[in-house]
Amino acid sequence: xxxxxxxxxxxxxxxxxxxxxxxxxxxxxxxxxxxxxxxxxxxxxxxxxxxxxxxxxxxxxxxxxxxxxxxxxxxxxxxxxxxxxxxxxxxxxxxxxxxxxxxxxxxxxxxxxxxxxxxxxxxxxxxxxxxxxxxxxxxxxxxxxxxxxxxxxxxxxxxxxxxxxxxxxxxxxxxxxxxxxxxxxxxxxxxxxxxxxxxxxxxxxxxxxxx
Length: 211
Fold this sequence. Notes:
By secondary structure, the protein is mainly β. The protein folds into five domains: about 5-50, Laminin; about 55-90, Laminin (Ribbon); about 95-135, Laminin (Ribbon); about 140-170, Ribbon (Laminin), CATH 2.10.25; about 175-210, Laminin (Ribbon). It has one helix and 22 strands. The strands form eleven sheets. The chain has a two-stranded antiparallel ribbon with strand order 1-2. It has a two-stranded antiparallel sheet with strand order 3-4. The model has no long low-confidence stretch (mean pLDDT about 85).
């Protein structure tokens, strides 16, 4: 007799076992009299739960603030517009009330399309970044010649090596201004030092020795 099993047909047959039913996508086989049913998880249907439903066509979708529903296997996700966040795009992104900006002149409660934030920071000179958190490296466009550039805020300074001066370290200090050349010797300026050119009859580092 259909639906029964056993030597005397005394037992109701487990159709899930008898037909070796495999419910797909996480479904569960439920035994019924002379039949079976796959109980599907949310987002699937069909005799064996083989059909992936387009969940976004359901009236139960909870995406808010004009966000876009994207169907995924077994459910959906909400793609938020800039300025919103949360599973259902139900939350505003951080606003100026939370004081998110650093090194800024002003915070405006307006959507920043580039960053997706619900606010826009107007940075102080010398700073950049969505939160004005980055000190612009002014040394990238600096000219320090033989010196070393030291970055500041909206400016820079040049650290000159010995023997040089000037805002761009481009002036060789005239060491002859305070030279000790003797006996009419001529001073020749060099870098952080000088050299004495001795007249005839004199020698020595400072031309101080006659011969």
